[in-house]
Specification:
Blueprint (H helix, E strand, L loop, with lengths): L3 E6 L6 H18 L4 E6 L2 H10 L4 E5 L16 H6 L4 E4 L2 H6 L4 H13 L3 E6 L3 H6 L2 H13 L4 H4 L3 E4 L13 H18 L2 H6 L2 E4 L4 H8 L6 E4 L6 H8 L3
Parallel strand pairs: 1-2, 1-8, 2-3, 3-4, 4-5, 5-6, 6-7, 7-8
The chain binds 2-phosphoglycolic acid (PGA).
């Protein structure tokens, strides 16, 4: 049985005070409304991790949005996996398209980030996804497969099973345009096929693959009902407690 994961990605939003207010709303509502088999995660700015993980309780896990690929040392401004772990972080987003695009993160660097996250007991939320131009050229499946191969396929099957994948078509992120249920399901099935070709059908079947890109309460039900979609990575709608919880309740 694959785990269901609904993860919020606050991106660069919310001061500590605003974040504490949003997180406590989510925690309070989630206790009563979110089914026990749905894993709720909030991926929040570094500055708020320590304080919010103290109020998150058992129902909501805390995630970071990035990690540096070295254990420690002279890397001014960076944050290590062991630092994240020390403040109660359980998940870390790796390879979000905004990191790839604006900060030049490469598949090789992301592979190193995956390794250091796993070595510290963190669950990588590994993102992949194509641009609109790549989709229009018909190379989207190959492009996403290469991201997965170069970022993850060095892992042993045991380590690979600890990873959660998020498919986020770049053209759907923050645009209000969501992939249709059919487009999303098709890509998720292709991703699972690619995982099976490297590992095995049994291993591929255990990996949770989340959809991300303008997921909202009114489109979540259709997406989450798709056979190969095991949850969502939610940006904009995770900034409103009601919307985030309503997505989680759509299962
Ligand atoms: P969005 O962002 O839900 O605002 O489209 C998703 C993401 O970037 O993870």
């Amino acid at each position: 049985m694959r785990k269901k994961v609904i993860a919020g990605n606050w991106k660069m939003n919310k001061t500590l005070e605003e974040g504490l207010a949003l997180a406590s709303e989510v925690v309070n509502i989630a206790k009563d409304e979110v089914p026990a088999d749905v894993n709720l995660v909030m991926c929040i700015p570094y500055i708020s991790l320590a304080a919010i993980s103290k109020i998150a309780g058992d129902k909501v896990a805390i995630g970071a949005q990035n990690v540096y690929q070295k254990e420690s040392g002279a890397f001014t401004g960076e944050i290590s996996a062991s630092m994240l772990k020390s403040v109660g972080v359980k998940y870390v987003i790796i390879g979000h398209s905004e990191r790839r695009e604006y900060f030049g993160e490469t598949n090789q660097q992301l592979a190193d980030k995956v390794n250091i996250a796993l070595a510290n007991g963190l669950t990588p939320l590994f993102c992949c996804g194509e641009t609109l131009a790549q989709r229009e050229k018909g190379i989207h499946i190959d492009f996403v497969n290469t991201q997965l191969t170069e970022g993850l396929f060095h892992l042993s099957p045991e380590d690979f099973k600890k990873v959660v994948i998020a498919y986020e078509p770049i053209w759907a992120i923050g645009t209000g345009v969501t992939a249709s249920d059919e487009q999303a399901q098709e890509m998720h099935a292709k991703i699972r096929e690619h995982l099976a070709s490297k590992y095995s059908a049994a291993v591929a079947d255990e990996i949770s693959i989340l959809y991300g890109g303008s997921m909202k309460p009114d489109n979540a039900k259709g997406l989450l009902a798709c056979k190969d979609i095991d949850g969502g990575l939610i940006g904009g709608a995770s900034l409103k407690s009601r919307d985030f919880i309503d997505i989680a309740k759509s299962y």
